[in-house]
Inverse folding.
């Protein structure tokens, strides 16, 4: 018996989630100060596409203001915008496997519609208006996704990043993590466009 899929070449852009290996969105190692799904009670007061949020919808990395932020994979810049009282300045990239979101940024180095390579410089970190502690909010959506699932369609990026490139909190780091206040999401209003 012969199975067609054994000898059939993979079509460009067709990936299974297990085959996604992302570049770290920053140089060096920065501590994770907020994991995926944390602070569920706090985030439940916010809505994403009309649905209460189930928890933190990405990873937050502590980093000094002005740190370089890089594309985790090749893709196209599909959105550069600003969300007051929420993500602040952000960039969204489209990839063959889904989308990546980089938020709480300062100066942006790319243009909307631009094709970027894996590891390309996108922006500086730091939320230019200084309303939140300096950090990078990083999120991903993997196709197919559902923006009405209580997570805004986002999924935990941690399994797709190399653990060797990340700095996980130690017992000494809990003090830093305790000082990090979970940033708010913008309160949704009619006609509001969410990243």
């Amino acid at each position: 018996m012969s199975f067609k899929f054994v000898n059939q070449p993979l079509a460009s852009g067709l990936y299974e989630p297990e085959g996604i290996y992302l570049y770290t969105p920053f140089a060096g190692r920065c501590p994770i100060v907020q994991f995926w799904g944390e602070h569920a009670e706090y985030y439940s007061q916010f809505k994403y596409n009309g649905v209460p949020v189930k928890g933190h919808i990405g990873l937050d990395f502590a980093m000094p203001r002005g740190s370089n932020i890089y594309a985790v994979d090749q893709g196209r810049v599909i959105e550069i915008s600003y969300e007051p009282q929420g993500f602040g300045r952000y960039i969204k990239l489209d990839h063959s496997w889904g989308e990546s979101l980089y938020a709480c940024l300062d100066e942006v180095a790319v243009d909307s519609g631009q094709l970027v390579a894996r590891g390309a410089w996108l922006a500086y970190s730091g939320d230019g208006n200084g309303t939140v502690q300096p950090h990078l909010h990083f999120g991903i959506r993997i196709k197919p996704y559902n923006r009405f699932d209580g997570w805004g369609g986002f999924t935990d990026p941690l399994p797709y990043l190399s653990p060797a490139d990340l700095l996980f909190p130690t017992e000494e780091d809990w003090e830093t993590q305790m000082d990090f206040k979970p940033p708010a999401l913008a309160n949704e209003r009619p006609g509001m466009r969410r990243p």
User: Anything to note?
Assistant: Residues 174-179 form the longest helix (6 residues). Residues 36 and 129 are 25 Å apart (CA to CA). Helices lie at 4-7, 40-43, 174-179.
